[in-house]
Amino acid sequence: MNTDSTASTEPTAAEAIATIKDVLGRRLVIMAHHYQRDEIVAHADVVGDSLELARRIPELKAEYIVFCGVYFMAETAAILARDFQKVRLPDLDADCIMAAMAPAGRVESVLKRLASTGRTIVPLAYVNSSAAVKAVVGAMGGAVCTSANAGTMMRWALERGDAVCFLPDKNLAWNTADALGMPEAERLILDVRGDGGKVDMAAADKAKLLIWPGMCAIHHRMKPEHMEAARAATPGALIVVHPECRPEVVRMADASGSTRSIIDFCEKAPEGATVYVGTEINLVRRLAVKYAGRKNIVPLIESACENMGKITEDKLRHCLEKVISECRVSVPPELAAPAKLSVERMLEACK
Questions:
Q1: CB half-sphere exposure, 32, CA atoms < 13 A
Q2: CB 164: neighbour CB atoms within 10 A?
Q3: 143 - beta bridge partners?
Q4: What pLDDT, in 10s, does the model give residues 190-237?
Q5: First to last CA, the chain
Q6: CATH architecture of 222-302
Q7: Interstrand relation of 28-33 and 64-68 (parallel, antiparallel or unpaired)
Q8: CATH number of 5-95+310-332
Q9: Which pLDDT tens digit goes with each residue over 161-200?
Q10: Contact indicator for 329, 89 with CB cutoff of 8 Å
Q11: What long-range pairs does 184-191 form, CB within 8 A, spacing at least 24?
């Protein structure tokens, strides 16, 4: 007698997700970042980088927005969502290590100390930051940026004050300043220990760019020796990296840019080219499959984001099954308004 007949008819996670999507129809939109695994991207209605996804939120009409990414991305969606919309995240523990390097209380203390000499300090928060940090930045006249528009937003901020405090990614800050031609003498990486008590105020008063000392572990682990190894292994190969990489790595690359820029670089690379890509491995593998037989897309190193990887097909299924009541991401009203200001300033400046 077959005792497994019930189990054998149990739908797979993929089948269950497809059924729920069909039932909810236009009431549901699944959004996914490019760094998600293939089985998640396959279910997404919208796939993009941080800027592309943020731009899409205000135009969505769905009641339920299920965001497959890390927590700060879902928070940004919740900030931009309208009152009738509910944002869900399949794993509420999918955090961002870099975002955690800039706690809101410390950010506020450091910014107040920097401004205590009477200078106008305009904070510029990388989108890889919490809603609480975005609220502090918005309340203090600043804005948010992504890797795609960091140059535009740094210019925006420089035009509005005596100095810019860029947080939390020191590598993106330094690489953006390099791209804008800012002299290194005008930059200072801050010591933020003791809630700003250890900041060298004499040096800070001379700097135009004050840099928070955070980083993305996924990109920071890519080093010059990896670049040298790629050049030696494949003479004539192209190398494109994300600007969250170390400045010395970015300088050695043929190009650097946002996730979208990396995708475009691979698209425009000549047929038969070998392209080393320095970013999260899920995207690199997807590009390698897309161009197989036409171009050789190779990871500079295999570097995976553990937190992005927390979103699995089973967790997405569970989230969709409980979409009305569970997995909700919300931002308190007292934070939502100033946080929304910081995001909207970016969207307005980058129209």
A1: 24
A2: 27
A3: 124
A4: 999 998 899 999 999 999 999 999 999 999 999 999 999 999 999 999
A5: 66
A6: 3-Layer(aba) Sandwich (3.40)
A7: parallel
A8: 3.40.50.10800
A9: 999 999 999 999 999 999 999 999 999 999 999 988 999 9
A10: yes
A11: 187/211, 189/213, 190/110, 190/165
Share of the chain above pLDDT 90, in %: 89
DSSP 146-214: -TTTHHHHHHHHHTTSSEEEEESBHHHHHHHHHHHT--GGGEEE---GGGGTT--HHHHTT-SEEE--B
- For residues 209 and 166, what is the distance between their CA atoms, to the nearest angstrom? 7
Let me know the angle formed at the C-alpha of 135 by 82 and 196, rounded to the nearest 5 degrees. 165
d(CA 167, CA 47): 26
Q: Where are the domains of the chain?
A: 5-95+310-332, 98-216, 222-302
DSSP label of 124: E
Angle (CA) 97 64 258, round 5°: 40
* 71-80 helix and 131-139 helix, angle to the nearest 10 degrees: 50
Nearest to 131 by CA among 90, 214, 86, 75: 75
Q: What is the DSSP letter of 83?
A: T
